[in-house]
Amino acid sequence: MAVYRPFRALRPAKELAPLIAALPYDVMSSEEARERVKGNPYSFLHVDRAEIDFPPGTDPYDARVYRRARENLEHLAAKRWIVREEEPCFYVYRQIMDGRAQTGLVGCASIDDYVNNAIKKHEKTRADKEADRIRHVDACNANTGPIFLTCRGGEALRGLMQEICTGDPLYNFDADGVHQTVWRVSDPETVAALSRAAEQTGSFYIADGHHRCASAVHVGLDRRSKAGRITGEEEFNFFLAVLFPSDELRIMDYNRVVFDLAGHTAEEFLQEISSAFTVEEKGTAPFAPPARHTFGMYLKGKWHLLTARPGTFPEDDVVGSLDVSILQNNLLAPVLGIQDPRTDERIDFVGGIRGYGELEKRAGADGVAFAMYPTSLEELMDIADAGLVMPPKSTWFEPKLLSGLFIHEL
To answer: Do residues 211 and 133 touch, judged by C-beta distance below 8 A?
Structure first.
């Protein structure tokens, strides 16, 4: 059973929340972040992507960038643009996108639960990305972006949150096409009931934010080792999260583009892949795969339906039967030579939110694009339960949790 508890948040002054809140640091480039903050000194991107306060081309891993992130966070607090709660609180956070709502509980999870696998993972992390967020968390002395957690069941938690959502919200605004609403919960009895309901769901699963989570845990363990004697209640023993019942969430497709055909002509390529897939031409209009083990493929201006042939993948293997594994093992590696999609510069990954037009654009005249059928939450949790990991870029969650609405000081 994983621990979940309230915390004394740093959070935006009510009227400034729409100006401060920002998309996560890792869904945009430095150039995109620079564009977003023009005319907005409040934006939390000045904390999460502090390189934007330096000349273009500045190394985002320069020590000055991490110092500036801390200075910018302190500036927000000094100006009272963000305020500190006087008591530990939970927050109920609802996002509505395209008419569909997801409602989660903002609180703090335990670094020990991460270490002991009561918080389950499904992805490997990259050392360079971890190192960046370790330096950021350490410099800011805070978790500046929440980890996206989910859980099985959660009926009691959902019921409590729905009741809270009938009250007056703390924040209520639109951002990037998503309606964002937050309710503050400070009543001790309600706080205790929410903790119990969250913890009774059993294990938590990282839906999104593996690098942020691993980094937060690393900093917490480092602080613990340097502190000597501890009580276990110190804030560095916990990290910022939002916990959602799994049936509230939506995984979108996470698509692939390879920039060349590895020396094949289009005809040779189609012949090569036909041993593992049936191939059906669908015309020039973008084509969405209709079910598991099917793929939309864009090649030379035309879309095709690929269907994995029976017997070409292990049906009873929770990882090997994933569509991302089938495509990697039966096409990307043997036909296009993409042996390690984490490091190969010939492949790119495109979140489903960007649409199929983006796939056509990136594939161009020389490449090939693959539209994936979305991975399910059940597949994700089954793999995490088995202690296994998914191939890279298997899941894309929307909407993204905003940064800057809740800050957890260590």
So the answer is: yes
Sheet with strand 302-308: strands edge to edge: 277-283, 302-308, 294-299, 368-372, 254-258, 347-351
396 neighbors 351 (Cβ within 8 angstroms):
yes
Could you give the CA distance from residue 151 to residue 200 in angstroms, rounded to a whole number?
Answer: 10
Query: Full-prediction pTM beyond 0.70?
Result: yes
- Length reported for the chain: 410
Rounded Cα–Cα distance for residues 355 and 257 (Å): 13
Sole residue written with tokens 């009691």: 156
Its sign, for the CA torsion 31, 35, 41, 45, is: negative
Segments of the chain with pLDDT less than 50: none
Q: How far is the C-alpha of 257 from the C-alpha of 347, rounded, in Å? A: 6
Helix (H, G, I), strand (E, B) or coil at 394: coil
What pLDDT score was predicted for residue 392? 80
Round to whole Å and give the CA distance between 269 and 6.
55
**Secondary structure in 3-state letters for 219-250:** HHHHHHHHHCCCCCCCHHHEEEEEEEEHHHCC
| Neighbour-count burial for 364-381, b at 16+ CB within 10 Å, e otherwise | eeebbbbbbbbbebebbb
